[in-house]
Design a protein that fits this description.
- This protein is of the alpha/beta class and about 425 residues long.
- It has two domains: about 5-295, UDP-N-acetylmuramoyl-L-alanine:D-glutamate ligase (3-Layer(aba) Sandwich), CATH 3.40.1190.10; about 300-435, Protein-Tyrosine Phosphatase, Chain A, CATH 3.90.190.20.
- It has helices spanning about 5-10, 15-20, 30-40, 55-70, 100-110, 120-135, 170-175, 180-185, 200-215, 255-275, 280-290, 290-295, 320-330, 350, 375-380, 395-405, 420-435; strands spanning about 50, 75-80, 90, 95, 140-145, 160-165, 195, 220, 230-235, 240-245, 245-250, 300-305, 310-315, 335-340, 360, 385-390, 415-420.
- The strands form three sheets. Strands 4-3-2-5-1-6-7-8 form an eight-stranded mixed beta sheet, sandwiched between helices. A six-stranded mixed beta sheet has the order 12-13-17-14-15-16.
Length: about 425
């Protein structure tokens, strides 16, 4: 089996939420437990940090992995979705799983386990666990796929659980209120295992407190004990003053990263105090400053180009856009937004806070779930958002670039690409093809 044959099987023969949406979601843990049992229950041999939440769990997971790698641990990192290559989901010390290992796992599954009929994510989860076990990973940072209680990753028994925040997303599957969503995400809290809560408004805080109390789990709210005295933002870094680990510089610069970093620093101190994990100030400093090179993280307020300044971000729900919209609105020069969404998400709340002075390039990603560009254009108009529609992200991006380059450099044009992970993925693929 070649790598292309293996990934073709994964994407076409199994239900894939990334492309199909809610129809591919398989709640419940019976199938993933049976699948893991066949492969020797590799998750039981892993020391796991389990990271859930609506927004920020990807940045949090990658940064924790970067710090632990800097400390000298062999670290497994399982995240989703991927942007360009399936193998981005499964990394050890920043290195993607090999094509040969993907092929080997898929072949063994097809030979012995097809009667189980797992989803794409269930199979991928067990692939990651087994790979980490075979690689001798010392700590595995595992990002929840969707929700928590019924997510495939929730078969783990972690040393630490983290819930970054709660916002409305995937309401068709997790519930229509923040209370319902919080209840699902609280499902990763395990008996006696400490849990860190990044952000929790009064409406959901008691959900976590009650779950932790009933589970006998120590609970720490990052908001209750500030991790730094001040965060100073610049174009290329955020400086955090007076942390437990000294003054730190964070490579990730989106506004939401200030909250994420508070969660991360709280988690690191908890790992030291309650989980017997050694972490030095040097490791924290190096990890925060070099997240992308250490872990391969992409798509978080990611600079693609300096002239014209081009940024992409995978923020795709109201929680993410509460940080993105004000940051974009504050830009002093002309603003060009290459925007697209999926068709199974209520986007009115997002459209209502997007900057009205921007020029929009409405587009659609190359996945079945993509909302048609013309439909998005029509949905945006009542909110005062105007522009033209384009059938591909590449065409929208090229047009925005040409428009921005027509102006004098002193106008400080900014091109932003986002709205959906898939829009960012198509943009990155387009740029990669141009380079190669």
């Amino acid at each position: 089996m070649t790598y292309s044959e293996a990934t073709d099987f994964l994407f076409t023969q199994l239900p894939v939420f990334q492309s199909q949406g809610p129809g591919a979601y398989k709640p419940g843990l019976d199938t993933v437990k049976a699948l893991s049992e066949y492969f020797g229950n590799p998750h039981e041999r892993l020391k796991v940090i389990h990271v859930g939440g609506t927004n920020g769990k990807g940045s949090t997971s990658h940064t924790l992995a970067a710090v632990l790698q800097s400390q000298g641990y062999k670290v497994g990192l399982f995240t989703s979705p991927h942007l360009l290559d399936f193998r981005e989901r499964i990394r050890v010390n920043g290195n993607m799983i090999s094509e040969e290992d993907v092929c080997d796992f898929v072949e063994r599954y097809r030979k012995n386990c097809q009667g189980l009929q797992p989803s794409f994510f269930e199979l991928t989860t067990v692939m990651a666990f087994e790979y980490f076990r075979r690689q001798g990973v010392q700590i595995a940072v595992i990002e929840v796929g969707l929700g928590g209680r019924l997510d495939s990753t929730n078969i783990v028994n972690p040393i630490l659980s983290i819930i970054t925040n709660i916002s409305k997303d995937h309401t068709a599957l997790l519930g229509n209120t923040e209370l319902e969503i919080a209840s699902e995400k609280a499902g990763i809290i395990k008996p006696g295992i400490p849990v860190i809560i990044g952000e929790a408004g009064e409406t959901v805080r008691h959900v976590f407190e009650q779950k932790a109390q009933s589970s006998g789990s120590p609970i720490i709210f990052a908001e209750d004990s500030p991790s730094f005295s001040r965060a100073i933002m610049s174009d290329d870094t955020i400086t955090y003053l007076d942390t437990y680990f000294g003054n730190l510089q964070g490579e990730l610069t989106g506004t939401c990263q200030v909250r994420n970093t508070a969660t991360i620093l709280t988690a690191l101190r908890t790992l030291m105090a309650q989980c017997n994990i050694q972490i030095t100030s040097h490791a924290v400093s190096n990890g925060l400053r070099n997240v992308t090179i250490l872990t391969g993280l992409m798509g978080r307020w990611m600079k693609l180009r300096n002239h014209p300044l081009t940024i992409c971000d995978t923020g795709h729900n109201i929680g993410g856009w509460k940080y993105l919209a004000p940051k974009l609105a504050q830009h002093s020069g002309p603003l060009h937004l290459v925007i697209g969404f999926v068709n199974d998400k209520d986007i009115d709340a997002i459209l209502s806070i997007m900057p009205t002075h921007a020029k929009y390039y409405f587009t659609q990603a190359s996945v079945p779930r993509a909302l048609a560009a013309e439909e998005l254009k029509a949905k945006a108009a009542p909110f005062g958002l105007y522009g033209e529609s384009y059938p591909t992200v590449e065409e929208a991006y090229r047009t925005a670039t040409n428009e921005a380059m027509k102006t004098d450099a002193v106008r400080n044009d900014l091109i932003f690409i986002g709205g959906s992970t898939f829009i960012v993925a198509d943009a990155l693929a387009s740029i990669s093809h141009q380079i190669n």
